[in-house]
Specification:
Length: 520
Amino acid sequence: MSDGSSFYITTPIFYVNDVPHIGHAYTEVAADVLARWHRQSGEDAWLLTGTDEHGQKILRTATANGVTPKEWADRLVETAWKPLLKTVDIRNDDFIRTTDVRHEVNAQKFLQHLYDSGHIYTGEYEGFYCVGCEEYKQPSDLIDGVGEYAGQQVCAIHSIPCELLHEKNYFFRMSTFADQLLALYEENPNFVQPASARNEVISFVKQGLSDLSISRSSFDWGIKVPWDDSHVVYVWFDALLNYITAAGYGHDDEKFSRLWPATHVVGKDILRFHAVIWPAMLLAAGIEVPRQVFGHGWLLVGGEKMSKSKLTGIAPNQITDTFGSDAFRYYFMRAISFGQDGSFSWEDLSARYQSELANGFGNLASRVIAMVVRYCDGEIPVAGDFSEADELIRGTEKRVTDAATLAIGHLAIHDAIAAIWELVDELNGYITAQEPWSLAKDPADRDRLEAVLVTAVRGLGTLAVLLSPVVPQATAKLWTALGGIGLVTDQRIDRAWEWTGGPRVSPLEALFPRIEATVG
Ligand SMILES: [Zn+2]
C-alpha cells in the first residue's frame, strides 16, 4: 500500500517527434518550482520527466529522416529534450524514456494483469484517427477543413484530415468505470484542478464513456501486447504507465510505496487522458489513483496557442540566451496565473525583467550589500534596538512566508511570487524612508544605521530562501554574498523569515544585468 509520504510530481512525457518550444519549458519549470519548494519544505520530493517515444507518428518521422525510430528517439533525447532541462535549470530526480527496458517490461506486467482480471477484450473498431494526436476522434471533435482540405473533416487541433481506420483490437472496458470516476471527482474535489478543468472532465464523463481501443496491429513501433505479439500497445496507454513504471511499479515495491500517488501537472489539452483514462486504468488494476491532476493553460503568442505546427513556436533558448534561465522561470511563473491561459510577449518579458528583477530585486540586493561594505567594512552588524519600522519588515517576512506556503499548497505559483514580491517592494520603500546614507553621516546615528542595515540584510536572506525555487541561480549568488551558511537550497522555506544573518557580506555582481540589445 502507498504510504504517501513523498511529494511525487510529474510533467507529461514529451513526444520526441519534434523539438521543444516554450510551452514544454513552461510545464517543466512549473513542476520544477513545485518540486524545489517541497524539497525545501523538508519533504521527500521527487520530480519525474521524460520522453514518449512510441507510436505511428514517431515511426513516420523517423522513416522520413532515413533512420530507425529508436535512432530518431535517441537523437532527439540527446540533442533536444535533455538539453531543454539544462536550458531552464530543471532539477529532475529521474528521466524516463518509454523505450527504457524498466518501462517496457513493467508496462507489459500491468497490461497482463488487466487482461488476466477480465478488463480487456477483443473487438472490432472503426473510426477516424488523427496521427497528429495519436487518437481516435469522435465526429464532434472534427471541424471543416480549409485551403487544400476544403470539403473534408479535419482534426480541430492539427487542421489535417483524419484517417478512417478499421482494426481488430484489444479494448479496455473503460465504460464500466464511469460511475466510479464520477464518485471520485465528487468525493475529492481536488483530484482535478483548477475548477474549470474539473467541470470539463465531469461533464465529459457524464455523457458516458466508451471502451478504449488499446492496441494497434498496422505497425510495430511500440510495446508488444504480452499475450499477442502481433499487436503493439496504444501509445497513450503505454505513455501514461511511465508515471508508475518510473516509480518502481512491478520491480521496486518499497520505492513505489514511498512515491505513489503522484501529482500530475499537464497541459489542459491532455487533461482527459490524465483525469479520465489514467485513473480508470489504475482503478482496474487496483492501484491508488493520482493525488491530483492539474491542467495548466495554454501559452498564447499573438492570440494563438503555442505550438510548432502553428508556426508560433519559440525555442526556450531564444529567451534564455538573452535573459538567462532565472528570468525565463520568473517571467512565466509570475506573469501567467497558473491554470489559466496566458499571453507571452517580448515586450512584457523585457519590461518585467527590467522593473521587477533588475530594478526591484537585483538592485535592492546590490545596494544593501554595497552599504554594508561601505559603512561597516562588510561586517553584518548585530543590532540592539529595533524600531517599529524594522519590526514591520520582520512582520512582513513572516506574513509573506506563510502566504507563499499556502499558495504553493494550491499550486498557485503566481500568487506565491506575488506575495513574496510584497517583501521586495516593502524593503525598497523601507530603504528609501530610512535613508541609511544620511544616517551614516552622523556618528550619533550609528546604532540606528546598524539596525537598518541588519534589517535589510535579514530581509534579503528571507528573499533568497523564498525565491530559491523560482530563480535558483540568482538566489545562490545572493546567499553566498550574504554570508549564508550552507546552500540556500537546504534552507527551510516554510521558516525562511527565521534567518538572522551571517557574519559578513561579500561583494555581489549584478544579479540581473542591464540588457542592451533589442530582442524579438
Ligand atoms: Zn490531431
